[in-house]
Fold this protein.
Amino acid sequence: MARAKFLNSTDAVNTIINEAIPRFAKAGFSGVSMRDIAKAVDISTATLYHHFPDKQTLYLRSMAQAFADKAEGISTVLAEKGTPQQRLTKFIARFTKLMSQDSHFRILLQRELLDGDETRLRLLAEQVFQSQFANVAELAKELAPNCDAHLMAISIAGLVLFHLETTPLRQFLPGGHAEHNDPDVIAQHVTMLLLKGIKGCG
Amino acid sequence: MARAKFLNSTDAVNTIINEAIPRFAKAGFSGVSMRDIAKAVDISTATLYHHFPDKQTLYLRSMAQAFADKAEGISTVLAEKGTPQQRLTKFIARFTKLMSQDSHFRILLQRELLDGDETRLRLLAEQVFQSQFANVAELAKELAPNCDAHLMAISIAGLVLFHLETTPLRQFLPGGHAEHNDPDVIAQHVTMLLLKGIKGCG
DNA sequence: TTATGTCTAATGAACGTTCTATATATAATA
DNA sequence: TATTATATATAGAACGTTCATTAGACATAA
């Protein structure tokens, strides 16, 4: 092979995807050109096209990789013992930390919610969220046997994610402080709100 | 003027913006071309450029218009009398209905949270959300005097908005039903959760 | 006459993609 | 082992398209 840059094709593909993920997260599908990605990996666009048939495929593979990385990390959080309250508290703490640590995953998720077609959303739901979502829903059932577990699981995730989503905006809203972006602060607030309602928060 | 298509420049500008808003909401800034917009209004791109100096300006004006439309609608919801609980219930019901009725506003908001620069986010915060956000925060203070009103106001908005955001995804998640997209169902769930916590939901 | 609204046509840049060539590794063969 | 053939990884250059934007002309209202 000509002046090999990578160990093999798999290495090349992984390197490309790892460079592509943060770029797609930051700028979206149409905000990143194949030339940009090629330049970032220091290969020609022709070489990039040797490894991926087209941009859409590269995007899908990047998305799948970003999601696969995280799906693994979330999967064992709820398996531990404890009262439902304890397990909820622990889940929220870990989920918040996970989502704020690596923003690529969260931002790609938001982009998919905005622009994803049915195929990509189904993939996302079934291969990334489904099992963990079911666990959270089950936990909700333990805490409130007659509640709508689906609605409740969405609410739990939404509380955490919306605080992270609004990070760039909240500094301009009344009472906004940097500490409101601290995952621990968010997690504690969300946990309290879920377990006790507004009145229980002070 | 040559074969006048509009009553005057203001009419032209408004017509263009009204065509642009849903397009920018659906496809984002880079997903809509000036050609597309010109075609939609049945004018040439040159004419479009006669009314707007560049694409960025057209986008900003469209955004500002979409936001101004809604800011008005939200502004008087909390002025009414009643117990804090009653006012919260009413606010959530109206906010949910408003946000689900016209999705352009909500989607543009989501896009700004993803891609908005500091200038646009500040504009959004100060000219659209600030006063109403303060009202919600104040209401939270009435319900829980020692709580962090900023965090609470974000949580309230987030609960509603996240349910709407996840509309295209929830059908693929366990327990998802069409009725979960009903604004009344969402509002009732959110209100209950806020006032009573998870346990109060069943 | 002058300012305004409109058009056709063009410009230059960026983009996704492909053509063609070449250097290297691997496998088959003598 | 030495030689040849094949497949793979790479790059330079170009193609065709679309894009934002502009130049210049023309028509009409004031």
Remarks:
- The CA atoms of residues 174 and 180 of chain B lie 12 Å apart.
- The longest helix of chain B spans residues 118-143.
